[in-house]
Each structure stands twice: as structure tokens, then as C-alpha cells.
Design goal:
This protein folds into 2 domains: about 190 residues, 3-Layer(aba) Sandwich (Rossmann fold); about 170 residues, 3-Layer(aba) Sandwich (Rossmann fold). The chain has 16 helices and 12 strands. The strands form 2 sheets. It has a 6-stranded parallel beta sheet, with helices on both faces. The two termini are about 20 Å apart.
Length: about 375
């Protein structure tokens, strides 16, 4: 459970500890997390059961709140833990390499000060490097310093250590692997495929692929466009549709986007997909497409499985392991013909058995299961 109260991080921390004084086993723990993801329910799912385990998750809007978190926790005799998620905000908007390096040094000093006050650090490693990384050497330095100072390195895919190794080193003795949670309970599941297709004006018998979420160039848009052309070449009269729903943070004026949006098989929704609409878009599909070159931790796989949908993903990174556990089809990264093969083979995934397997995968990684494992890991570094 995340604690959202009015007031400063320190006031929220103290109030949370007061509410946890009834906890019958171990001492209450205050866990501050940053950055705060408002549109992504991942953090709410990760912390969904922590309160019942005696851990109050408090949002830190600014890294500067780290000092007040440590002092407030100490004032009521509670251990303080800092859980860092994405690092983008630290140097992502730096105007130059020099400024980026200065921010890295300042960040490391903040962490040292927090640790000197008795704080513990958990780094949840979401990606090897940020999707937008203007200063990769500074980012690698930031992450190495963070990894060195962390008490716990929370990874979601077993390939993380190897994929990160060209950029920074993760100490195996600090690592705990807790998978990405599914989204059970986070989105409505009542809408049927027929109702969703009626609302989106899609044919009930069409083979429908879904590309849902932010539509960015680095998600393999060009490869998807080439694969779609290959499918058209093979089956020009096929009943096929591609639902492409999500805002375009890179802008609308690109050749690839124009090519996809003008395609007669493409249903384009170039806006942010609102929470209540996500189920409609996903339930309308037969399979979700992830045309990436590589993916370490894909939330979309877990969202698709929650809504009983299989996926198409690259045979690389963390996706290889996921394809062994959840129903889906792999393709050779960067190969449009291979992706087209997978898109056409998706007809074999249109069955109740496949959808039941997708849901079973989601249930095996339910927020309750994952949050409980995370609480246990946090307590291990405090106790």
C-alpha cells in the first residue's frame, strides 16, 4: 500500500509509522520511493501488500526529500529505506555532459548522506539504460555508483546482470529476483472481445494485432511497418487489422508513422490511452505485438496476460525467459520476415486454452504474490 497524504514527505513518514504501531511482529519500516509514476500502476502494485507487512511506502516527489525522510524516520525510531526506480529525471534533461556529471556526483553525495543517517537503499532495475539516454557514459557512472551504494538490487529478469555488464556491474550478493507483477485488479476485465470490437468497429472474425502504449520510434515502428507490408504481400485479401493506440511522444511527423497511420489495415488512436479504455483496446485484439529489438522488462506482456491475451516478442533479452512461461510467439529481432511469420501464426493463438494459459501466468505473478516477496526482501536488509 502506498501512503498518499497531504504534507511533506517527513510528515507522511511520521503519520505512516503511527498507523503501523499496531504491527505485531517486527518494527515498522518507512520506505520512500522515487520517482513517483502517476500514470503507471506498477508502483501501486509492487507496494499493494507492504502495509500489511509493516512497511509504509511514501512517495518522494523530489530527491531532496531524501534527507527529511531519514530524519523523520529516525525521530520515531523506524528504519528508513529508499527505493529508486527510474533514473531518467536525474540527468535526462541535462543541457551538457559537464552538467550531467555534476548531477551524478551530487546524487551520489545524497545517497552517501542518507546511508550515513542509517538509511538503506533498494534499486529496482527497470532497464539497462533509459530509453532516452543523451549521456550514456554519465548514466553508466550514475548507475555504477548507485549499484555500489545499494543494499539490495531488485531485478525482474535473470538476464539483467549480463545485459548490464557492458555498462556497469551488479554485485550478485546484493541481487534479489522478483518478477514484474501482473495487473490483476488494476484494470476492468468484464468487457468481452465482441463488445470491444463493436466499440472499435472491428470485424468479429478479423485477425487483430495490438500495438498499445506510447508509440515511440525505439519500439520498433519501422520493423512493424515492414512486417505489415510483408503480410499484405502474402495475403492481400486477408481479414487483418492492426490496432495502434497511444500517444506519440516523438511527434506525429515521421515517415514511419505516416506510413502506418495511412495503412488501410491500421486503426490509429494517437492519444494517451486512458485507464478505463485500456481494457477495450486490449480485449479487442487477438495478440499484442512488441516489435522491439530487445526488451528487459515489459509491463505490456503482463498487462496483456492479465486480460487473457498472448503476445509476439523478440527472442532477446528478458523476453526469451517470458516466452518460456507465457503463451506467445517469438521472432528474430530486427527481421521483418520473421515478425510477419509470427503475425500470421498468431491465428493459432485464438483459443480459450491459450487465453486460460495467459491468465494463469498473470495469476502466478499476482500483485499479492510479488508485493509479499518484495516486503520480505526489504526486511532482509533492515533486520
Amino acid at each position: 500500500m502506498t501512503v498518499h497524504r497531504m504534507g511533506s514527505a517527513a510528515e507522511q513518514a511520521v503519520a505512516a509509522v503511527r498507523e503501523l504501531e499496531w504491527f505485531p511482529q517486527d518494527a515498522p519500516i518507512v520506505l520512500g520511493y522515487h520517482p513517483v509514476a502517476r500514470m503507471n500502476p506498477y508502483q501501486a502494485l509492487l507496494y499493494s501488500d507492504t502495509f500489511d507487512d509493516g512497511i509504509a511506502a511514501v512517495p518522494l516527489e523530489r530527491l531532496a526529500d531524501l534527507d527529511s525522510l531519514a530524519l523523520a524516520a529516525a525521530s520515531v525510531g523506524a528504519p528508513a529505506v529508499f527505493n529508486l526506480h527510474w533514473t531518467n529525471a536525474i540527468i535526462g534533461d541535462a543541457p551538457s555532459l559537464d552538467v550531467a556529471q555534476e548531477r551524478v556526483a551530487e546524487f551520489h553525495v545524497q545517497l552517501d548522506r542518507f546511508r550515513a543517517r542509517g538509511g538503506r537503499i533498494v534499486w529496482t532495475v527497470h532497464n539497462v539504460l533509459p530509453h532516452r539516454c543523451p549521456f550514456p557514459t554519465a548514466e553508466a557512472s550514475l548507475r555504477q555508483g548507485l549499484a555500489d551504494r545499494a543494499d539490495l538490487l531488485h531485478i525482474m529478469a535473470s538476464e539483467t546482470v549480463e545485459l548490464a555488464s557492458p555498462h556497469y556491474t551488479l554485485d550478485p550478493s546484493k541481487i534479489v529476483r522478483i518478477p514484474h507483477p501482473s495487473y490483476l485488479g488494476a484494470y476492468p476485465t468484464w468487457i468481452s472481445q465482441r463488445r470491444a470490437r463493436f466499440e472499435l468497429e472491428l470485424g468479429f472474425d478479423d485477425l487483430v494485432w495490438g500495438f498499445i502504449g506510447e508509440v515511440r520510434q525505439n519500439k520498433g515502428l519501422a520493423l512493424l511497418a515492414d512486417a505489415l507490408d510483408e503480410v499484405v504481400r502474402r495475403q492481400p485479401e486477408g481479414n487483418h487489422r492492426l490496432v495502434m493506440a497511444g500517444r506519440h511522444p516523438d511527434g506525429d511527423d515521421t515517415d514511419t508513422l505516416r506510413r502506418l497511420r495511412r495503412h488501410p489495415w491500421v486503426l490509429s488512436w494517437p492519444f494517451r490511452v486512458q485507464h478505463d479504455d485500456m481494457s477495450t483496446f486490449l480485449r479487442a485484439t487477438d495478440v499484442v505485438i512488441l516489435p522491439y529489438d530487445q526488451s528487459l522488462n515489459s509491463g505490456m506482456v503482463h498487462l496483456a496476460s492479465t486480460l487473457e491475451r498472448p503476445f509476439i516478442g523478440p527472442l532477446s533479452g528478458g523476453m526469451v525467459e517470458t516466452l518460456e512461461l507465457a503463451p506467445g510467439i517469438g521472432f528474430e529481432p530486427g527481421n521483418a520476415v520473421s515478425l510477419a511469420d509470427a503475425m500470421l501464426d498468431a491465428r493459432d493463438l485464438r483459443s480459450d486454452d491459450v487465453r486460460a494459459r495467459a491468465l494463469a501466468f498473470a495469476e502466478s505473478r499476482s500483485p499479492t504474490v510479488i508485493s509479499g516477496a518484495f516486503s520480505e526482501a526489504v526486511r532482509s536488509i533492515v533486520d
